[in-house]
Structure formats: C-alpha cells, structure tokens
Amino acid sequence: METYQNILVVIDPIADEQKALKRAINLATCINANGKNKVNLTAFLSIFDFSYEMTTILSSDDRDVMRQSVIKDKELWLTSLINELKPDIDINCIVVWHNRPFEAIIERVIKDNYGLVIKGTHQHDKLKSVIFTPTDWHILRKCPCPVLLVKDHEWPIDGNIIAALNVGSDEAEHHSLNVKITEEAKQLAQLIQANVHLVNSFPGTPVNIAIEIPEFNSNEYNDTMLKHHEQAMIAHANKFDISIVNTHVEEGLPETVIEQIAAKIDAELVILGTIGRTGLSAALIGNTAEHVIDQLNCDVLALKPDGYVSPLQ
After folding, report:
1. How many domains, the chain?
2. Are residues 13 and 143 in the same domain?
3. DSSP annotation string for 44-96
C-alpha cells in the first residue's frame, strides 16, 4: 500500500461520530504495522460562514481577523477530537476557510499529493438510507486519487471485499481498470485480513430485439453472453490466484447485481472504477453511481484509471 503513505481524512463539522477519522486511524495503523514507511495522516476540515462575508460594517482586515479566530477555534476543537480517540499515530490538522468544500479538498490533494481521501457519509434516520451530499459526488468525480466513502459497516477479520469488474469487454481501458481494481482488492485484503470476491454483470437480451425479431432466441443469446463472461472471469481470477468460488457473474444492471452480491456475502467494502463507459468498472457517475453506491450498506473505494487528470488540476 505504498500509494497510501499520505492520507487525507475529511472531518465532518456536524457529525457526533467521526467514522471517517476512525476508519483512517485503523487503516493507517494496519499499514504502519505491515509497511516500512509510516503513514502521514492529515485531518482536514473546510469551514465557511456566509455571515462573516456579509458583515459590511467591518473592514476587510477585521473580517480577516474574525475568520482566523474561527479557524483557530476549530483547530482547537479538532485537536481535542483527535486526542479523545487516543490514536497510536501522529495526525496533522488542517482547517481552511472555503465556500466550496469539495474544491478545498481536491486542491489540497493536488497541492500535497495525497494518495487517498477518506470521507464519511450521512445516515438519514427516517429513511434508514445513506444521503450523499453534492460534496461527495464532486469528490468522486473530480478527485485525482482514490476516494474511500465510509459507512457504518465494520471491517471484521475474515470479512469480504468486492472488486467490481467488467471482464467481458475487450477495451484496453476496461482491462487496465480491472487489473487495478483487483490488485487493490488483493492488497487491501491482505492488509485487513479479508477475502476477495470478483463481481461482474452483463446485460440480458435487449427488449427491442426480442420484440422486433420474433425468431430471435433470447435464451440462447443469454446463455452465450453468460458463458462469455464466465470464461473471461475465470481467466481473470486465475491470473490473480483468486478462487473460482469467489467469482460472481450475474445477468442484470450493475446497481442490482452488486447490491445483491454485497448483501449476500455481507461485504465490508466494494472497490470500483469511476471512469469508463459500460459495466461495473465503468463510469459509475450519474444515475448508475447513485444507485450502486447509495444502496450499499458498506464502504466504497472508488479508483480512477491511470492517467486521469482532475478538471481542477
């Protein structure tokens, strides 16, 4: 996990429990115990109060002083918060004044070359579902490094990690992302003592074809598609020494298949790609991303393909 030597954890200014910070400390502790280099862990808080900007009675310098005073208070609060957790590692604290949190986060990632961003999600008490903020989606789409969205599921010993793939495609982009996702899953599984499962979905017979061409054999088509993806999955699993028992190839939409498998094996983490065009390792942005990630009851690690450049860079 050499790429995770520099971790930025996003602090939630309104949450009673900082689950992202706890997950970051646990992960950093595991990496430190298994690696040669120590992890640099930074707790990052972006704050903004529009009322301070609208105080026309005060001069620009006075408003500056007020902002710095608020920042100082939050730094003390953050330090106290960290001390309460009694971590075994040193944690840096950064508090910035910024009216767009996602930009503040990504700019800091680019500036200090962070290898991982860890951020908590919000639980909606009434609906019992996770509510993703615009900040979450902006970070997923625009952050140049991997993003770990933390939910409430624990990371137990001998738990399960899902690597969401698109093994049926011959495109180089999908192939390289499949490799990256699988390698990431194996490294993390070794680190936190978990099992790797490979998941792949494939589309069924297009409805318009079945209607317009009566002689079209949809069952034969589905069987052919299933065999193609199963063979590709077996070949991919063999390359990474992953048991065939831990591979899952199902017909259906990505958001449906991944949710079902994650629930079935009680996955603690799903790893997926955020750039592409089709399949689970494709661009899970927009409706597909919202459906997949929003419905999962576990953490999500989103990876970018090699060569990705953030629009904010």
Report:
1. 2
2. yes
3. EEEE--HHHHT-TTS-HHHHHHHHHHHHHHHHHHHHHHHHHH--SS-EEEEEE
Q: Which structural domain, as residue segments, surrounds residue 4?
A: 1-152
Domain harbouring 141, CATH code: 3.40.50.12370
Helix (H, G, I), strand (E, B) or coil at 190: helix
DSSP line for 118-147: EEE-EEETTTTEEE--HHHHHHHHH-SS-E
If pLDDT is split at 50, 70 and 90, which confidence band does 199 have?
Answer: very high
Which DSSP symbol is given to 11?
Answer: P
pLDDT, tens digit, 9 for 90 and up, residues 141-169: 889 999 999 998 999 999 999 999 989 87
Roughly what angle, to the nearest 10 degrees, separates helices 19-34 and 172-192?
A: 80
Query: Could you read off the pLDDT of 222-276 as tens digits, one per residue?
Result: 788 889 999 999 999 999 999 999 999 999 888 889 999 999 999 999 999 876 3
211 and 133 in one domain? no
Please enumerate in sequence order all residues whose Cβ is within 8 A of that of 93, keeping only pairs 6 or more positions apart, or say none: 42, 43, 45, 75, 78, 79, 82
> Are 252 and 307 within one domain?
yes
8 A C-beta contact, residue 117 and residue 105: yes
- Rounded-to-integer distance, Cα 186 and Cα 189, Å: 5
Q: What is the pTM of this model?
A: 0.87
Let me know: does 211 contact 267? Beta carbons within 8 Å.
Answer: no
List, for residues 23-50, the tens digit of each pLDDT value.
Answer: 999 999 999 888 777 899 999 999 988 7
Same domain, 133 and 27: yes
The Cβ of residue 82 has, within 10 Å, a number of other Cβ atoms equal to 20
- Are 184 and 102 in the same domain? no
